[in-house]
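Students often ask why we bother encoding 3D structure as a string. The short answer is that it lets us treat folding as translation between two languages. Here is a chain of 190 residues written in the first language.
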Amino acid sequence: MNATSWARAITNILQPRNVLLSGMLGVSLAASGDWTGIPWGLTGALCAGIIPASYVEWERKRGTWGDRHVVDRRQRAPIFLVILASIGAGVVVMVLGHAPRDIIMSMISAWAMTVGLLAVNYAWKISVDAAVASSVTAMLCVVHSPWWIIAYALVFAVCWSRVALSYHTVAQTAAGALLGASTAAVFLAV
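And here it is in the second language, the structure alphabet:
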């Protein structure tokens, strides 16, 4: 496989929907201390990743965008608004359902990260994929173990793939990764 094929495989496997599914399940297991956290993790993955990815796919099929990457930053605002609404609804369900604190805080962190992504997106194309990968890794470091820092090798792979495919610059992926890590750390550390 050449570098472009590797980059495409990495960006498809480690896309936000997939990272959020595994990450929210990991956070919910740590937050609950047992398997009872799984439904909360699935709720988080649904609201933060699966519903937004389904919206992007629906718009792609309608011809709004060419693919899930939505390379024109001017077209991204509606996606961020769907993400904010979906995560907000998830937080309400979790609060009303008495979900473990850390899973609620991880959702609030994802919501805050999305606000940051939306704000930056008005002027500059920041990497959502890098932000999500970094946020999930930081969350796992906080709720599970600092050893999860090793997973930043996967964050680096996501950043590399986005640059290799010419979807982002190094600065755009670095900024996304920094935003993801900082919002996760701030909200989960409180």
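Translate back mentally: The helical segments are 3-13, 16-32, 38-62, 77-96, 101-121, 128-143, 152-164, 170-189. Keep this in mind for the problem set.
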